[in-house]
Write a structure and sequence with these properties.
Layout: H1 17-26, E1 30-37, H2 42-50, E2 57-61, H3 66-73, H4 84-101, E3 111-120, E4 131-138, E5 147-155, H5 160-180, H6 185-191, E6 201-209, H7 218-227, E7 233-236, E8 242-243, H8 245-249, E9 253-258, H9 266-280, E10 290-297, H10 298-301, E11 302-303, E12 306-307, H11 309-321, E13 326-329, H12 334-342, E14 349-354, H13 355-361, H14 373-382, E15 386-391, E16 393-394, E17 400-401, H15 413-420, E18 425-427, H16 440-449, H17 462-469, H18 477-480
Parallel strand pairs: 1-2, 1-3, 9-10, 9-14, 10-13, 14-15, 15-18
Antiparallel strand pairs: 3-4, 4-5, 5-6, 7-8, 7-13, 11-12, 16-17
Keywords: Receptor
InterPro entries: Rossmann-like_a/b/a_fold (IPR014729)
Organism: Bizionia argentinensis JUB59
C-alpha cells in the first residue's frame, strides 16, 4: 500500500514540526519504534507532543547505560558506541522485534519503521562539539522490503541542550521526508534542514538503500551535500558508497592529489605513483597507515556556472573503477584543504601538484579575504608537517620547469625561497618526460572529434573503461554511423 503524496507541492509553506509529526501520527498505517542514545529522546518527544502518538509509536526507548546497551545490541569490536555499525545494529534489532511481535494477520496494512540515533553531545570543557549517527529503516508498501536512510552529523552549537533540540528537529524532518518525499531524494535532502540553520549542524555523510532508492547513486547524493552547503567535503570509496571522512583519515599519513581528472591521464597517474613512492620514503610515514586521496573541488565541477552532474558521475565512475578514494570539497584554496585534513590527523601530509598549481598558490589575489593575507594562508598551509611534491611541466619554449626555475611574482620570491630551501617543496625527478604535454582538455577534444589518438594519452585500462561506460561523451562507432532506412 503506497502512501499518498497529495498536497505536498514543492512550493507549499514549510510545515511546522508539530504539523509534520501530527501528519505521521494520523496516518493509520505508519507504525514503528524509536531508539535514541546519547541526547535524550528528542525525536520521539515531537511525536508524543503532537497528539495521536498511540497510532504511530509501538515502542520508544533509550538504553543509556552501556551495559544495558551492550546487552540489547551487542558489544562493538572497537568498544565505541557512536558508530555506524552501532546504528545498524540498533535498526536491525528493533525491526526484527517488530516483525516477530506484530503479525501481518493482525496488521496487514501497517508500514513498519524503526528510527534510531546514537550520538554524543558537547563535552563540559566545550572542546569536543559532538557528533552522531541517525538512521531510519522503513517500508512504503506493507509487507515489502525495507528502505534505509542513514546519515552522520556534526554539531556546531556550543550548548548540549541546544544540540539535543537540533537532533529532535532533524529526526522529525527525516521521518517525514522519508515517507512523503522518498520519490524526490534531492528535495528530501534539502528538507532535512527545515527549521534548522547550517550553523547548527553539518551532515557530512548520507546513504540511501532499498527498492525506493534503487535509482539513487549515493555519489550524486554526496555531491548534493556539498552543493547545498550542508558540509565542506564528502568522501566516497571505490565501491561507490559514501564513507565517513573521519573513519578513513583518522591518524593516517595523507597524500592528496587535486585535479579535474576529466579524464585521468598518464600525467595524473605518473604524478600519483612517483609522489606516492617519495612519500612512503619520508620519515614517520608508515605504509600501512597511509591514505591517498584524489580531491576534486566544487569549482572544478562547474560548467557555465552550474554543476554538470553527468560530468561528475563520469569522473567518479572512472576514479572508483581505478580503485581510488575520492574527496569532493568546497575548498578553492589549498590551505583550506590542509586545515580540513588536519582535523583528523597529526601525522605527515603531502600534496602532489603541478608547477602551475604551485605558482597559483603564490598569487596574492587568492588571499585578499584574509586579514593576514598570503602570510596567514601560508601559516595555515605549511605549519603542519606537510610537504609539496612538485611535478614539472614544459613552458612555451619546451623547457622543463621545476622548483628551481619556476617564476613567481617578484614580491613572492623571498617567501618562495624560504619554503623551497626549508624542504617544504621537493621536485618529482623520476618523471616520464614523454608525457609532459598530455592535457585532459586535449583528450576531451579528441573524443569529441572522433580522433582515436586520445587512447594513447591515458593509462592502461582507462580508455577501455571510457568506452565500456560511454564516459565523457564517448559514443561507440556503431552508434555514430548513419542508419539506412
Amino acid at each position: 500500500m503506497e502512501i499518498s503524496l497529495k498536497g505536498d507541492k514543492e512550493f507549499d509553506e514549510i510545515p511546522s514540526l508539530n504539523t509534520k509529526a501530527l501528519r505521521i501520527n494520523l496516518n493509520e498505517n505508519i507504525y514503528g519504534t524509536f531508539s535514541e542514545i546519547g541526547a535524550g529522546q528528542e525525536t520521539v518527544r515531537q511525536f508524543f507532543r503532537a497528539g495521536g502518538a498511540s497510532g504511530t509509536i509501538a515502542k520508544a526507548m533509550s538504553a543509556y547505560d552501556k551495559d544495558f546497551s551492550d546487552a540489547i545490541y551487542g558489544i562493538e569490536a572497537d568498544g565505541r558506541y557512536v558508530t555506524e555499525t552501532r546504528l545498524l545494529k540498533m535498526l536491525n534489532h528493533e525491526i526484527d522485534i517488530m516483525e516477530r511481535r506484530l503479525t501481518r494477520d493482525k496488521h496487514p496494512n501497517k508500514l513498519f519503521f524503526s528510527y534510531a540515533n546514537t550520538v554524543t553531545t558537547i563535552d563540559f570543557a566545550k572542546q569536543y562539539k559532538g557528533h552522531g549517527w541517525v538512521g531510519l529503516r522503513y517500508q512504503i508498501e506493507a509487507g515489502q522490503p525495507y528502505n534505509e536512510i542513514s546519515l552522520h552529523l556534526r554539531f556546531k552549537e556550543n550548548d548540549a541542550r541546544l544540540q539535543q533540540e537540533t537532533l529532535g528537529v532533524l529526526g522529525t524532518n527525516l521521518i517525514y521526508g522519508a515517507f512523503y518525499k522518498y520519490n524526490q531524494p534531492k528535495k528530501l535532502l534539502r528538507y532535512l534542514y527545515d527549521h534548522l540553520d547550517k550553523d547548527q549542524l553539518e551532515i557530512d555523510t548520507i546513504n540511501f538503500s532499498g527498492p525506493a532508492f534503487k535509482d539513487v547513486d549515493n555519489r550524486l547524493m554526496s555531491l548534493q551535500l556539498v552543493k547545498n552547503g550542508m558540509t565542506d567535503a564528502v568522501m566516497f570509496a571505490p565501491d561507490g558508497n559514501n564513507v565517513l571522512p573521519a573513519r578513513v583519515l583518522y591518524k593516517k599519513n595523507i597524500l592528496a592529489l587535486r585535479g579535474s581528472f576529466r579524464p585521468v591521464t598518464k600525467v595524473n597517474i605518473d604524478m600519483f605513483e612517483k609522489s606516492h613512492e617519495m612519500f612512503l620514503k619520508e620519515n614517520k610515514v608508515d605504509k600501512n597507515k597511509t591514505q591517498v586521496v584524489f580531491e576534486i573541488t566544487l569549482s572544478n565541477l562547474r560548467a557555465e556556472g552550474e554543476i554538470d552532474e553527468q560530468d561528475f558521475m563520469d569522473r567518479a565512475k572512472l576514479l572508483c573503477s581505478l580503485g581510488h578514494t575520492v574527496l569532493i570539497s568546497n575548498f578553492q584554496e589549498y590551505y583550506k584543504l590542509v586545515e580540513y585534513l588536519s582535523q583528523y590527523t597529526k601525522s605527515r601530509m603531502g600534496l602532489a601538484m603541478g608547477v602551475n598549481n604551485l605558482v597559483d598558490i603564490f598569487d596574492e589575489k587568492y588571499y585578499r579575504h584574509l586579514s593576514g593575507g598570503i602570510l596567514e594562508a601560508f601559516g595555515k598551509l605549511f605549519f603542519k608537517d606537510l610537504r609539496v611534491y612538485l611535478y614539472p611541466m614544459h613552458d612555451e619554449d619546451g623547457e622543463v620547469i621545476t622548483s628551481e626555475n619556476l617564476k613567481v611574482h617578484p614580491r613572492m620570491k623571498e617567501l618562495y625561497k624560504f619554503f623551497k630551501y626549508n624542504g617544504k617543496v621537493v621536485d618529482i625527478t623520476d618523471y616520464d618526460n614523454t608525457i609532459l604535454d598530455v592535457f585532459s582538455r586535449d583528450v576531451l577534444k579528441k573524443i569529441a572529434d572522433g580522433d582515436n589518438s586520445w587512447e594513447t594519452m591515458l593509462p592502461e585500462g582507462v580508455s577501455k573503461l571510457i568506452k565500456e561506460k560511454s564516459l565523457f561523451g564517448y559514443e561507440a562507432e556503431e552508434m555514430m554511423r548513419p542508419r539506412n532506412f
